[in-house]
Design goal:
alpha+beta; 6-stranded mixed beta sheet; 25% strand
Length: 408
């Protein structure tokens, strides 16, 4: 699709009285949407413990009159808004989980039009906004050719490793009908994610016989092997194009300052825009771990046993990309531009990585408004009505264009 054709399609939607009625409904129900944001934010949803929020959202989807409202085996909740075409499905997702551990105070503090709470913008606002989209379409009598499946998914953050959307596309019963995928994630509407940054994450445990730091001096030391492996990673090529990174991020182990450790460990994060480059980085890093262990066993005594390394994958997010000329990208860009934003296409790591890696057209769009300090205890969003509505209108227009808004 050309950008000219996409702009014309968006202009037709924005001029349609039913779309204008949908926007008017979102404006009239602004306070209800804010109430939904607060209600959902104050239901804790820590990593791997999204059950309470999922149950609440499942009931909200059911109350909004969707069909096939259900929860799958990993905890995702979803419901279908039936289209007229009896064909493909457009998924509109937002993730249920936050990065914050159990016990975090998630009560919302309001200061003017700003709401402060952990997870309020990433991604709880989007869950509420997707409900507002539903109400607006229903109130305006908008129909689409494609079905729209609204999805609240688990496991997007951190060690969740996209497990919710991964399950949806590998084992979920709807996977074969998906023609396009939107994840609504965080407020920024101008930032359209069209590329998925892949990542490989490992926990490497280095183990040895241990011993007294003085009396057993000369025995192999797992900490030296870990240091060699860390330096090997530090020296690996990380090109800026395609953007590729590596990091030794978490370290632990040891017994006492006067003991050769029995075990030390590190966690590492490898990332790239390119699946090929990521595979190269992973291969060279793992070879470096083997070489570091061999070097330590050659450098010191193994009479009490050698150093060994246990390599445990703790994260695997596939890289992917939706082409700039794809219809979903062109329509999203046109919708954002038509609302006065300057659209930017970016790479990031989101739920869209999974469908992108499978060749399914997918993008990340914003929920509207403004926000900041994501992943911190002072995370905030601004729910000022005008800016919120502008962003929501842009994202809804993109969704309707891809799903095929039926003529009035």
């Amino acid at each position: 699709m050309s950008q000219t054709a996409a702009s014309a399609a968006i202009a037709a939607i924005l001029a349609d009285p039913r779309f204008q009625a949908a926007v008017a409904t979102m404006e009239q129900e602004h306070d209800r949407t804010v109430g939904d944001i607060i209600r959902l934010t104050e239901i804790p949803s820590p990593p791997f413990k999204e059950e309470r929020r999922a149950a609440a959202y499942l009931e909200m989807l059911r109350e909004h009159g969707l069909e096939e409202v259900e929860q799958d085996a990993v905890g995702n909740v979803m419901g279908r808004r039936r289209g007229t075409g009896n064909g493909t499905t457009v998924v509109v997702a937002a993730h249920l989980d936050t990065v914050f551990p159990e016990g975090t105070d998630v009560r919302v503090r309001r200061e003017g039009t700003k709401l402060f709470a952990p997870g309020v913008g990433d991604d709880t606002r989007s869950l509420a906004v997707n409900l507002a989209f539903l109400r607006a379409m229903d109130a305006a009598g908008i129909r689409t050719r494609a079905d729209i499946l609204f999805l609240g998914d688990v496991g997007e953050e951190g060690l969740g490793d996209l497990r919710g959307v991964r399950h949806f596309f590998t084992e979920g019963r709807h996977r074969d009908r998906v023609g396009a995928f939107f994840t609504v994630d965080s407020p920024e509407v101008d930032r359209i994610v069209t590329g998925g940054i892949g990542s490989k994450r490992y926990r490497i445990a280095f183990r040895g016989p241990g011993g007294h730091s003085f009396a057993a001096f000369g025995l192999v030391n797992p900490a030296y092997a870990m240091a060699r492996a860390s330096l090997t990673l530090a020296e690996l090529t990380a090109p800026s194009e395609p953007q590729t990174t590596h990091c030794v991020s978490v370290l632990g182990g040891g017994t006492s300052v006067n003991a050769i450790p029995n075990e030390v460990w590190m966690e590492v994060d490898l990332r790239s825009q390119s699946a090929t480059e990521l595979a190269r980085l992973e291969r060279e890093f793992l070879a470096g771990v083997e070489a570091a262990v061999a070097a330590e066993n050659a450098a010191r005594s193994t009479r009490e046993g050698p150093v060994v390394a246990e390599v445990t994958p703790i994260g695997d997010r596939p890289a992917g990309h939706t082409a700039p000329g794809a219809e979903i990208v062109q329509l999203a860009v046109a919708a954002v531009a038509a609302h006065g934003y300057e659209p930017r296409q970016e790479y990031s790591s989101t739920d869209a990585n999974i469908p992108m890696s499978l060749g399914i057209p997918a993008v990340k769009i914003g929920s509207g408004g403004r926000g900041g300090r994501a992943h911190s205890l002072e995370e905030w969003i601004d729910v000022e009505p005008g800016e919120s509505l502008r962003g929501m209108s842009a994202s809804l227009a993109a969704i309707l264009a891809v799903a095929g808004m039926e003529p009035g």
